[in-house]
Amino acid sequence: MNVFEFRNLLQTEDKKERRMSFFRKLIRSVDVGANGTQDYVVKNGPGKNKIASTRQ
Question: Whole-prediction pTM value?
Answer without folding.
Answer: 0.42
